[in-house]
Write a structure and sequence with these properties.
It is built from eleven helices and 16 strands. With 352 residues, the chain is an alpha/beta fold. The longest helix is centred in the middle third of the chain and has 31 residues. The structure holds 5-S-methyl-1-O-phosphono-5-thio-D-ribulose.
């Protein structure tokens, strides 16, 4: 039974009294539990074990991790403080390799740290910048939501995969932010959430947060994507992203690629929603590391074993959806449309 109550002002991750407070997402949907950290190593561990997950939430958590590191440091010179921060940055960076928001969040904080003139000033600037990034995340999601809502119509049934919601960000969400903004614009919509094996972010998190907010949401097994599309039960798809490279290749939760392929087969528009902090304008798709996770995520569900002992497992956490399958990429600066190499470049040229 699920009696978890969520207040709409809740943040997935926040800074309180010089500590980082997070919702423990491994406990959802059964329990709403908060964890509190005063050591950056604990934040690194929380990212690794998916207590906090989702690209923008990981980016802000990394920044908060460095804010803890700056307070933990006993350095008395700027140089020693920066060295302590570099070490913390390395430990935080090595937790999860695919979502570029983590590197983005860490870099942003290091730039601020490097511009400080004294130990005290660096400490203050770093903490303030991390708090600002958390506030900005919500504003960005709301703007992105409004931008994307024009693509959705009254009576649409929208499929989403994994969790690109409030729980994957500080609040409001990216793909689910667009879904929220579409409803706020007065349109009547339904949502189909995929279960998203093996970690089940769809059933544990997306179905939970949408149901909590009163959406008409149906949960399907990942294997029913083709069925729902072939039977006209879905009009549009929207997902988030962990990294988008300059060619428009989208890295997102494993299974996204097969949903996009199936959407193309059925002529269903497939959209991606992501802030500019999810774009990696330097890497080529082939150079990005796809996180491979423990086989135990696949050989069991919760504590229940569902596969024979010793079975070989392939468990990639993300896949790549090529640009030709994507109808539009929604950002806080507008919607990029094919050809993506041009439209993505424009998003950055015009606005930064
Ligand atoms: O492994 P996770 O749960 O961190 O993966 C999350 C996703 O793939 C999300 O779709 C992505 O980070 C976008 S979140 C706004």
């Amino acid at each position: 039974m699920n009696d978890t109550v969520v207040d709409s002002s809740l943040r997935t991750v926040e800074w309180k009294d010089n500590k980082v407070v997070m919702i423990d997402q491994t406990k959802l949907p059964n329990k709403l539990e908060f964890v509190e950290f005063d050591d950056f190593n604990q934040v690194a561990n929380a990212i690794k074990t998916m207590v906090v997950r989702g690209a923008p939430a990981i980016g802000v958590s990394g920044a908060f991790g460095l804010a803890l590191a700056v307070l933990q440091s006993k350095a008395t010179t700027e140089g020693d403080l920066i060295s302590d921060l570099e070490l913390a940055k390395k430990i935080l960076f090595e937790t999860r390799p695919t979502a570029v928001n983590l590197a983005w969040g860490l870099e942003k904080i290091m730039n601020v740290a490097n511009s400080g003139d004294s130990v005290e000033q660096i400490k203050e600037q770093v903490v303030n910048e991390a708090k600002k990034m958390a506030d900005e995340d919500i504003e960005i999601n709301k703007t992105m939501g409004k931008n994307g809502s024009v693509l959705f119509d009254d009576n649409d049934t929208i499929m989403t995969h994994c969790n690109a919601g409030a729980l994957a960000t500080v609040a409001y969400g990216t793909a689910l932010g667009v879904i929220r903004a579409t409803r706020e614009s007065g349109k009547n919509i339904k949502v189909i959430a995929t279960e998203t094996r093996p970690v089940q972010q769809g059933s544990r998190l997306t179905a939970f947060e949408l149901k909590h907010d009163g959406f008409d949401v149906s949960l399907i097994p990942d294997t029913a994507v083709g069925y729902t599309m072939a039977n006209g039960l879905v009009n549009k798809v929207i997902v988030g992203a962990d990294r988008i490279v300059k060619t428009g290749h989208v890295f997102n939760k494993i299974g996204t690629y097969q949903i996009a392929t199936m959407a193309k087969q059925h002529g269903i528009p497939f959209y991606v929603a992501a802030p500019l902090s999810t774009f990696d304008m330097k890497s080529n798709a082939k150079d990005v590391v796809i996180e491979m996770r423990e086989g135990t995520e696949v050989t069991g569900i919760g504590d229940k074993k569902t596969a024979p002992d010793g079975i070989n497992v392939i468990n990639p956490a993300f896949d790549i959806t090529p640009p030709e399958l994507i109808s539009g990429i929604i950002t806080e600066k507008g919607i990029a449309q094919p050809p993506y190499d041009e439209s993505i470049k424009k998003l950055f040229q015009v606005n930064n």
